[in-house]
Prior knowledge:
Elements: H1 2-22, H2 24-34, H3 43-59, H4 70-93, H5 96-122, H6 127-147, H7 153-159, H8 167-186, H9 190-213, H10 228-232
Helix pairs in contact: 1-4, 1-8, 2-4, 3-4, 3-5, 3-6, 4-5, 5-6, 6-9, 8-9
Amino acid sequence: xxxxxxxxxxxxxxxxxxxxxxxxxxxxxxxxxxxxxxxxxxxxxxxxxxxxxxxxxxxxxxxxxxxxxxxxxxxxxxxxxxxxxxxxxxxxxxxxxxxxxxxxxxxxxxxxxxxxxxxxxxxxxxxxxxxxxxxxxxxxxxxxxxxxxxxxxxxxxxxxxxxxxxxxxxxxxxxxxxxxxxxxxxxxxxxxxxxxxxxxxxxxxxxxxxxxxxxxxxxxxxxxxxxxxxxxxxxxxxxxxxxxxxxxxxxx
Length: 252
């Protein structure tokens, strides 16, 4: 009965995490449509990538005992694909400064994961200590992932608008932390449960901010500058037309 309940919670955790990882699709649809990263930050997606890499490794038989944490592997493996896709889109449309910053942070994340995987495989020879090493580093990555959307909190408070703090990202973060906390407790695995003790209150904080400032709505789009590049291709300068609020100061 206990195993069935744990599996059921793991499946629900997979579903909520899938919604969490897929939530930025709306954001990046907007980025592609406007061909600009605007004021969106890439940091939450890079941090989420580090979390997915570490917990996919944690769930594999190299670290865990056989396939005891198979639900952890499936969702985080899918998360790797999604987060890499979002980061690629960001790098494609971000200004040069944003590309350099995002690319550098992503490289550091990949290097940390690679070192962790190599040490846990070749320097440690039992499952318990491998889980302690990978789980501890994963704990840091998970806390950072749940806290990453707080990068937008200052902007939300200053502008009194939640335009750049998507509701679904905050909501599914809260829901996923509740379910994975339950899964970790049912599995008697504190390394899986403990990150969600931080993720749950952080998710509540983000939802509280959204409820407080949602009345500010979405900032209206207004023409802000002239599209000089388009007009350079025109023979007559009087054909200049205003561009649609294409903010090239996207940041990571």
